[in-house]
Amino acid sequence: MIKRYYNIVKKYFKLGANSKKYLLFLGLSGIFRSMTLLLIPFIASKIIDAVTIKDYVLAYKDVGAFLIFSLLYVFFHHCNYVAYCKNSIYTHGKLQKLILDKVTYYDEDFSKNIKSSFIVNTAFKDLGEAMQIPDRLFDSICYIISIIISIVILISVNIYMGIITLILLIIYFISLNKNLRLRDYYLNNERKYNDSISELMGEVLDGNVEIKSFDMKNDLNKYLEENKKKWRKNYFQKRKYHDKAAVISPMILSIGKIIVYFIAIHLILTDQYSVGILVLVIGYFETIEDRIYYMFEKIDNISQESISVDRIHILLNYKNKNMINFGDVDIDDIKGKIEFNSVSFTYEKQEILKNINFKLKPNSFTAIVGKSGSGKSTIFRLLLRLYKCNKGSILLDDINIYDYKKETYSSNVSIVTQKPFIFDMSIRDNLSLVDSNKKNQEEACKRAGVHDYIMSLPNGYNTKLISDASNISNGEKQLIALARTLLSKSEVLLFDEVTSSLDLNTSKKVMKILKDLKKDHTILMITHKPSLMKLADDILVIDKGRLVGRGKHNTLIKDNEYYKTLQK
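Below the sequence we write its predicted structure tokens.
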């Protein structure tokens, strides 16, 4: 049992989310609180003895001491509460940062291994539970010290009372450990099925249109009921062993209490001990029983919270198979020259890109075209360093892209997607995630052609965007996302089908913006629109992972049969 809880605590502290200062404060305040509480039964017995022999002066002195230690107990209890609050706040913030940093660094395959419901439940529910472990730990240690001291005192009063109490405590802990182990096994299974149910609910919300269209409700309910059935089974098993630990095991102590009280009363009736000793025995046995009860509560919490710690470890120790290590090259003056030298890329045994070669000059606009699945998006993923090419090299300003520092590369290569994500916060706050300078924000919005629209809103830049900016049009959302990208001051801008869902007027506005942006950016755009292909300085034609054509629109439309089919 000790080894099990030692491993739980060790695993918790491996998270590295605690303050040594607050932990010391928490531990010391807990020890002083327990020590003052232990002295109270002893002083109470002294008061009884003094009254019995009618030494009222001594009795009043003992009453004064009783009051002082009672007040000290309240003081140290308050200190312990303050320490708990400070450490919990610190730990909560640190763990959230660790999880956020990890999640934002995941590769594109993480969703296959870790469900979004698991991440959300872990980042909130599990984090809130795990942060309480230090408080539970120090309380449990203090309770153990109190129990040991109380047993020693009982042995010093009467060896039989002490030994009986010790034996019953051992039996109690064996029973408790067995029931808690089984309870935690079923609790862990319960949490797994709860994640599955949460995931299904999220999918129902995302696919509500299809569910209504194909009348999937009954089949979904059957699937949900299967998971609920498994959840219920594990829930009831968990409750069974929890109740055994909470009700059956403590009965052992109740039996011991009756035996010890009988012994103490017998000793008093035979004039072997005073009434004060009876008060002392009752006081310390009650202390043992109370400490056992509270310790069970704390150990029980630690046992349940160990599952939360395990889940946090799963998140923080997730191995990014496809994520690339960063180098140490840190250059501010990046021009934006891009080079693919004999680049090949295989993903899950399928060759996606085959010996791709091209060079792009700074301040140019290049369109990447091809049918769906031809490898266009993979070129962008490689440029974003989400994957590493299996053969060949990719250079930015004649330096391998994997040699740049993370911050340097990320600040110089940015993407605007077909469906950019906007946070549920104001326009100003969304832009501030990249650059908090208001003047820079407004300049970026002017260049993106969205400043006048924002100023026409009742609250201007303070307008709250809700549900991924569903309260504004797709066109304006796309332009705000573009402004956010411009704030990053990236030299290389990647546009992934940004005009596919826009109306004609907004598409024309974007085309005009692209003409302006190429003056000081290297622009790559994946597109299916002939109007954007005509606008490009250069066009890369991709088919089945190969570069099958390159040139301007007028040249390709004459000489490249595959490009002609794309126009149709």
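The chain has a mean pLDDT of 84.
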